[in-house]
Write a structure and sequence with these properties.
Blueprint (H helix, E strand, L loop, with lengths): L5 E4 L4 E4 L7 E6 L10 H19 L3 E6 L17 H9 L3 H18 L15 H13 L3 E4 L2 E4 L1 H8 L10 H6 L17 E5 L15 E3 L3 H11 L3 E7 L3 H16 L4 E7 L2 E3 L2 E2 L10 H6 L17 H9 L7 E3 L1 H21 L12 H15 L4 H19 L7 H18 L12 H20 L3 H13 L3 E5 L2 E5 L1
Parallel strand pairs: 3-4, 3-9, 9-10, 11-13
Antiparallel strand pairs: 1-2, 5-6, 6-7, 7-8, 11-12, 14-15
Helix pairs in contact: 2-3, 4-7, 4-8, 10-11, 11-13, 12-13, 12-14, 13-14, 15-16
The protein binds one RNA strand through helix 1, helix 6, helix 8, strand 12 and strand 13.
Length: about 500
Amino acid sequence: MEQQLLIYNTLSRQKELFRPINEGHVGMYVCGPTVYGDAHLGHARPAITFDIVFRYLQHLGYKVRYVRNITDVGHLEHDADEGEDKIAKKARLEQLEPMEVAQYYTNRYHTAMERLGVLPPSIEPHASGHIMEQIALVQQILDAGYAYVSNGSVYFDVRKYQEQTHKYGQLSGRVIEEMLATTRELDGQEEKRFPGDFALWKKASPEHIMRWPSPWSDGFPGWHAECTAMGAKYLGSPFDIHGGGMDLVFPHHESEIAQCVASTGHAPCRYWMHNNMITINGQKMGKSLGNFITLDEFFAGSHKDKDGKEMLAQAYSPMTIRFFILQAHYRSTVDFGNEALQASEKGFAKLLEAYKTLGRVAASAGAEANPEVAALRQKCYDAMNDDFNTPIVISHLFEAARIINSAADGKLKLRQADIDELRQVFDTFLFEVMGMRDEASEGGNGQLVDSLMHIILDIRATAKANKDWATSDKIRDALAAAGVTVKDGKDGATWQL
RNA sequence: GGUCGUUUGGCCGAGGGGCUAGGCACAGGUCUGCAAAACCUGCUACUCCGGUUCAAAUCCGGAAGCGACCUCCA
């Protein structure tokens, strides 16, 4: 079935029909993490957002090459006077090799992403491994006349680019003149011809550990260069989709466009996608606000705010966080609060239970085709096709859960074909496309637990049959204390962790 | 300060000119030895002030709150 996928393109500020450059293939580049600290909630959002895009495009039958970089060079500490490389600074503090730090946090990032159900990208290039490509890019821009060398550093000539292409600001909607009116005084500005110019190559100061030789100086690439160079290397130019957080629109992505246009004459990609940001209890997340929560802290359920007060009421599993993020559309902000997270935890458990219940629903001979079931699959596709509207997909799955539970209660009759269809819709949308998984049933002892529970519930059923309420309640209470909920139904008891 | 975006019921969130998602919470009911679960029912909202329209949460203008970005921070 051919699906008409609409994607909101930041460039045009509207939804556009998705058409790949090469039929059947999609190239997607997403800005990945800077590996100088533990992954936090801000990393989970884009990773999950574009994991959905990756999964859904594959589901539609596209062969997708998904490139997500690891930034391990060249980014300067925000509040550092000397413009010291972030990773180098951290390394000095911890007495480690810079690459050791990068590797350590890269590993931890991978672990956190795996737990969140984020598929690994097709290629995960490191900026440090592509210095040559970045130097070549800088040279191309110099050759094209859109850059100049100043004191060993190379800067992009924004004014000239603007005069010749009138494209600077096309993505972010910014007007150069306006920007400059509000420009602040910053270090290093005197090397530039124009305050709006940005670095393509930066000469390293003596204390700067991470440095590479180049035709202009020992230094490191400018902060927009890696994405332009690696995107073109692995996806060609132009490619289909470029993604990242909304905070990257300017200057990062704007500058990527400029670098690409200056060096090749055309834009880097066709569709720009940006996920919105995350807030915590209505506040933006920031170190200074003391609400900078790492993913591991979420998983463990422990985070003290700046007053030493515990902010998390409980631990939240990776799947709870994933489901919560998917319950909001990726272009909206999403607010993390205990009440909201608990709602997601329960909601997701309800869907999983309904899916399991489906296995116990018996087909009714002679039942009519259920019109709601018949419409379900396409409604889910329609929601996904409308710019990946996962909250709507989830709302349809809740409707499906209601149908399943009604059937299990005997209040609704389903024919076998509808039961099969319900199972397939859950398999497709909840598990395959949205990447949710049943954490409780993982861990390897599932079979054993199943049989043990079967034995226990069998004993309890016998007790109940004998009206031995003391024994049956003792079993139920003891199981509850161990974290297992017993649920009595018409056809015997079931259990849930 | 500038540019852009956003503001939905107790909480989270879709939608986006008339038909008013979904989840959680809460209340009542059915079922059950009791409880839980499940099902049924109720709670029906769109920041404020103007305007356009037969009709506005939805469009336009203004105000306020919140957020992102504003040059070396992905």
